[in-house]
Amino acid sequence: MKTNRLIVLMMLAGLAVASEPAKQAVPAHRGKQIFDQWCGICHAASPRMPGTASLAAKYGGSLPAALEERTDMPPAFIEHFVRKGVLIMPAFRKTEITDADLELLVDYLKAKDQ
Ligand code: HEC
């Protein structure tokens, strides 16, 4: 009986070790995945998206309507809207988008500045 338990424990330990690299392999475009999961439904590059349509009306073409095409947004600006929301845009809780994920999201939206 004890031997069986030991074998099971060793197998579990093996599994834990085997799955470790997969957990660490965060894709470079994790920010894009977060954007697609939480923001794309309103901010994807299509005039039919409510966020994109709203920003097209707000800026009247002086800035791109699609967030992924913007290069002018400081991190604090993005963070403010994500945490507070605006109009029909909900405020996102830390249980939905963690601070670490928000940082990746900001990095993704800022990456196009360079
Ligand atoms: C339910 C639809 C919806 C979702 C989901 C949504 N937004 Fe929005 N977002 C809007 C609308 C509508 C506005 C307001 C546009 C306006 O002021 O006319 C907006 C505004 C913004 C602004 C301000 C832009 C500006 O120049 O005024 C930012 C930044 C922003 N959203 C980022 C995000 C991010 C990042 C996500 C994902 C975490 C997200 N939004 C998810 C609908 C949405």
TrEMBL record:
GO MF: electron transfer activity; heme binding; metal ion binding
Domain Cytochrome c: 26-113
The species this protein was found in: Pseudomonas jessenii
Highest taxon in the source lineage: Bacteria
Pfam families linked to this entry: Cytochrome_CBB3
Protein name: Cytochrome C oxidase, cbb3-type, subunit III
InterPro entries reported for this sequence: Cyt_c-like_dom, Cyt_c-like_dom_sf
Keywords: Heme, Iron, Metal-binding, Signal
Stretches that traverse the bilayer: none
Signal peptide positions on this chain: 1-18
